[in-house]
TrEMBL record:
InterPro entries: Nucleotide-diphossugar_trans. It comes from the Bacteria. GO terms for molecular function: glycosyltransferase activity. The chain crosses the membrane at residues 12-35, 316-333, 339-359. Belongs to the glycosyltransferase 2 family. The keyword Phosphoprotein does not apply. Gene3D superfamilies: Spore Coat Polysaccharide Biosynthesis Protein SpsA, Chain A (3.90.550.10). It holds the Pfam family Glyco_tranf_2_3. This is Cellulose synthase/poly-beta-1,6-N-acetylglucosamine synthase-like glycosyltransferase.
Amino acid sequence: MQTVAEIFNILLWIVSTIVAFYVLLPSFLLLIYGFKRLFGLSSSPLRKGVNITKEYSFGAIVAAHSDLTLVPPLVDSLLKQDYKNFTVYVVADNCTDINLPAYDERVKILAPETPFNDKTKSIRHAIEHFVVPHDAFIIFDSDNLVRPDYLSILNAYFNMGFRAVQTHMLPKNTDTRFAQMDAAGNHWCNFVDRLMHMEVGVSSAIWGLGVAIETELYKQILLEQFQHGQFKNLGGFDKKMQAQLVKSLPLLAYAEEAVVYDEKIQDGSKLQKQRTRWINAYFKSMHEAWEVTLHGLKKFRPGVVFFGINMLRPPLFMLMGSAGLLCLFNIWWNWPMAIFWAAAIASFVVSFFAIVTVMSKDSGIFKAMFFLPIFVWRQVKALLRFNDAKRNFLRTANTKVVYIDEILKKN
């Protein structure tokens, strides 16, 4: 019986240590951020000065599926770039009515004869139809928009030697409570997984959009290693791509200055569908997370180990649910630890509010965070419908037609 109790205590200690690490990490990163800002320190490469020796050729790949309604605003924002060495490739996958405005020669419309229903195949199709050998390309979803200086900033980063760069994603719309809460989560992730990664010298995590990659690098480590770009499952595409990039590069950069706008979820039902897909992708990507962690250990790369451990972090509602259960359990088992867990949960909540305040000046987003329990409940329902994502990809339709000029006027 004593042996069973000892084993239980060891397992409890391991689980508690893992959960505590994830719960307390944001507060620790916030302290580092505050210290560096207090003394005027920053790891942003642009602030150190850039010697522009080359105008990189960029291919902007727009992976559109089923609907092209939101493509014109994105193309409009790309054509308004103050940087001119680029070509736009709109992959109209499974689009029956291709009725787009007449653009100039920098915009190419690609309509696959056989539907791909796969983002990776759309990207590969665009690369195969490059009209010039682009140095790098950027992946966009059809609902994105970019600021006029977007490509010029990316050019600066590539001139500094970076071979893959994640740009700064901001919300395109914050006109509903769900959109505001969705945006709050994005701001938190931008801070913890991207901005602070760069500040401490670790590769940035990527989104599935707004990421620029050197073309030859993509061909080398992705098209070749993944059966010429055909992933076995589309779910978790960005996780699979980032795992290979992080293992192959000294640093996957984060360009905070290059802003890409993304449409946020407007209502609860769409949020639930999206989160069901994301939760499924998280469990599917655990293999890649362990692979990155072990690669870092074998190659003695602490930054890669840290990145891999962060890839293993569960969705926040699951993480905080675990912390809450540990707190309740320890009221009976070990009350000093119950006090620790209550303090840890409180520190996470305070740091979450502080981080979102640092990353966004939108008062609506701050006020929306008081409605987060509703947001969490929708994610719990998404978890309960986890198996739906195995049977269906559960795409979420975006409908917010907004042009970049409208957003720039507001800002």
